[in-house]
Amino acid sequence: MDFLEWARNPWGQNVPIHIAWFLIWVAAIAGLLFLMVHATYIRYFAKARAFANSDSPVVAARIPEHVPRHSLTARLFHWVMATSMFTLLFTAFLPKVGLQFDWVTYHWIAGSVLTVSILFHIIHASFFMGFWSIWPDRIDLRDARRRILRFVGKPAPPPDRFAKYPLENKLYHGAIIAAGLSSIVTGVFMMFRVRTIFFPRYPYLFRDMTWGLMYVLHGLVGVGLIALIMMHVYFGLRPEKRAITKSMIFGWMSRDFYLNEHDPARWPVEASASPSRSQGARTEG
Amino acid sequence: MAVIRDVMPAFELAQPNSIADAQKLLEQQGENGWVLAGGMDSFDWLKDRIKKPKVVVDLSGIAELKGVRATADGIEIGAMTTLTEVVEHAVIREKYKLLAESAELVASPQIRNQGTLGGNVSQDARCWYYRAGWPCYRAGGNICYADTPEGRNREHAILHADRCVAVNPSDSAPALIALDAKFVIRTSKGERMVDAEDYFIGPEIDITRLHILKPGDLLTAIRIPSTWAGARFYFEKVRDRNVWDFPLLNVASAMVVSSGSIERIRIAVNGAAARPLRLKVVEDAVRGKPPNAATGEMAGKLAVMGAVPLQFNAYKIPLMRNLVKRAIGGVQEAAWTS
User: Fold this and answer.
1) What ipTM did this prediction achieve?
2) What is the rounded distance in angstroms from the CA atom of residue B146 to the CA atom of residue B148?
3) Total tally of structural domains belonging to chain A
4) Which residue of A264, B17, B33, B276 is 20 to 30 Å from A76, comparing CA positions?
5) In this prediction, what percent of chain B has a pLDDT beyond 90?
6) Is residue B184 a part of any domain in this protein?
7) Is B33 among the domain residues?
8) Which of A14, A102, A207, A216 is the best residue to mutate to test the B interface, defined by the most B CB atoms within 10 Å of its own CB?
């Protein structure tokens, strides 16, 4: 079984041309298996989550009813990125599994939208949001160790509640950064091989081997994203995560959810003038 | 690079004697099966050892696929009917001369004696980079060797190119589109019929095929309705060698003129894109107008809107403009312009 497809170019060199398309099914099945195993584990085996420390009534009283989590700009970025990502996956892989349509134009347009939105996000996150809030910190690593030890039945103190983002969120974000940037960089170069409005075609930009590896990387990242997006949608729909999903729509999460899952010391939220509304509260993004 | 060895790779030869058996065999073999009609396209691929099917399904023994039959509304031509039979058939010559004229201009008499109508419309692209076995888009790779600064692309597409710039080489295809023919296809799910223009697909839909047939599918017949019987027809093919060549471009039109105006018209060109193009915009624009030089001039300009020449095929734009102009305005009235 060959994971890559090879061809002999006019100069007699064997070069990879793209991934073997059965990997689409491998990724989809792997994603599905993960969902099934996780859902089974949560339903039948998982223990109730326990966190260290609890807040004083004074701290809790300062938290507004609606805790602001995502600004309108951040939410718009997320949904634009999600739309373009789904368009990219559907246009890339549906034709490969038998649903044929004029996919290339939609694909590069969606890719261009994704590229622009990611560039915007990099600037927005770097200068207007809490840049480090999405990266794992020392407490995340310490708590991850504690959670693993407790998971395997060894004694360990309970972990702290999360900062703005749980470690799983941060790791997923890291995976999406790696996959997204790889697909964008390779995709931008691949646009030199099709007719777009951006630049003239120039198929000789790289040697055949480099082009081949670029197509392979683009394909591998693409099928990887199938599994990653499946997981993301799954977690977004899980009941215990619904508050996080809703916050990506409405911008806020409830005070109860915030106090149960998040540590005000690690993710401080300023009280608003009116405790019932969150508009005055400041958020990192 | 392909080397003609004249010794085909080994394959299993199946010679069914019914459409049902042939379709079943093709369905069983899937990607490993190969449909052999007249062999004019197939033997090139096989002798060059570029295509190496495991099973070749030879349709020559299926009587149902041969001959021209009258139907309640026109005629039905079996997919295995030879081009010579099409050219010589009395009813076709009398009522659908457009098809006879186009078939008569296919290749040479020997090839027309062997080549079939189904094969002519289903043949593969003739781009030499592709035929030479190079790993281009159409062959499943990730490059078009013809659409490069140095690529030899004099014969290639000026319209609807999408990564691959190969063109459809069929002469009968535009004539069948102009005649509003229906293609009868046998699949594992039964029989279905598609309009001639929908039988062909461009690279934007599937870069590895020129038509909608999937592995296991079989084109069994082509039905021509009587709608355009006896209409005013025009077919012209331009090629490098008039004795025997694929078209650089061809045009086919069927027109009904009433009271000096074009009442109904269908017009199609081939050799301009990866599929024969029905020029609906032109049809709409000329309907109700007199079939003269001025209308032809306007039609020609409309036809080439959006054309993008490659390095060596810019000549195709005025060529197509003039062919459409002549198809509408007539050869005498519509003078050739560059």
Assistant:
1) 0.82
2) 6
3) 1
4) A264
5) 93
6) no
7) yes
8) A102
